[in-house]
Amino acid sequence: MSGNANNSPRASLKNARRVVVKIGSALLTRDGQGLNIDGIQNWVGQLAQFRARGVEMVLVTSGAVAAGMQRLGRRQRPHALHELQAMAAVGQMNLVQVYESAFQRHGLHTAQVLLTHDDLANRKRYLNSRSTLRTLLSLGVIPVVNENDTVATEEIRFGDNDTLAALVANLVEADLLLILTDQSGLYDLDPRQHPDAKLVEEAIAGDKQLLSMAGGSGALGRGGMRTKLLAAEKAAHSGASTVIASGREENVIVRVLSGEVVGTHLKAEQGRVAARKQWLAGHAHAAGSLKLDAGAVRVIRESGKSLLPVGVKAIEGTFTRGEVISCLDPEGHEVARGLVNYSSEEAARIIGHASDKIESILGYVDEPELIHRDNLIVL
């Protein structure tokens, strides 16, 4: 599980084109002493370097409750949910101001995105969230994502922003999830109790033996490492690798994205496209089907292109946006399946028409394709 500066897994990080960076509460609040303005400006400066090189960056932040407590002069963290939500509402304003100011120094625009678990569990809202984030990235904007603590309840809370960061990595199909924490990474033993503990430099995301190294969430010196490992496993579902590293390391973001051996690198076993296609292929039940003309079948089979409305002749079944549906050839044989961008009712109105007619027919347009090629697997 160890590596060196020249190994291929680390070298591949230099090619990452879309990165999700999560900064933990201990870093952002100086271990609860108030917002770490200097640290935020430093991390933002590193993100800006890679944004200038064309790398798309998403920032997942913690710290809203702690920032609210500081503004209101509260020393003890509340236990009641409504008080925590109030602290988050006050603190979120502070966080937004600090991030906006820091990114503006580099000529970059930011966008606040607040999510709850329900936003990503509901397939339609999941796709809406994905479309918003991908549009922001295409505009060169840095999305700053946090859990919507102000309205979240115990039933829909992520519970930790490591999980949120992993789900965002899935959402935007990131190449890398970088989790910055107050620890150097995962050790094979608790370094506070075992001076000979060794940093795990390289491993496979989802390797079950790693959890035994992490211990419980309250383990001395390694609190929360378990959630980071589970987050890495979730991120790997869409092909993203994860690096867990100390945000206190000098130039840590630059060094990680330059392929340097820093922290713990948890590699996804499959690439992004392969992992996503496997997930689609594993759906035993399709909510409905689209009957394609011969031209559309040829295009998706031979050219690997998206399925457009113009190539669809008929619809069977009732489905909603984001469900898995089958694509049938003129003889009724299944040739592909994928995630549909429109409901069956909407699709029935636009099939047979060119994509530039969707808005005039429906009064709006979500996507120009019925199924995007990234969400389509040919069988």
Strand tally: 13
Structural class: alpha/beta
CATH class placement of the largest domain = Alpha Beta
Main sheet?
Answer: 8 strands, mixed
- The CATH level-2 architecture of the largest domain is identified as 3-Layer(aba) Sandwich
Q: What percent strand? A: 15-25%
**Which term fits the overall shape?**
globular
Give the oligomer, counting copies of the same chain as homo and different chains as hetero. single chain
What strand order characterises the main sheet? 3-4-2-1-5-7-8-6
Distance between the termini: 36 Å
Assign the CATH superfamily of the largest domain: Acetylglutamate kinase-like
- Please name the CATH topology of the largest domain: Carbamate kinase
Number of domains: 2
Order of helices and strands: HEHHEHHEHHEHEEHHEHEHEHEEEHHE
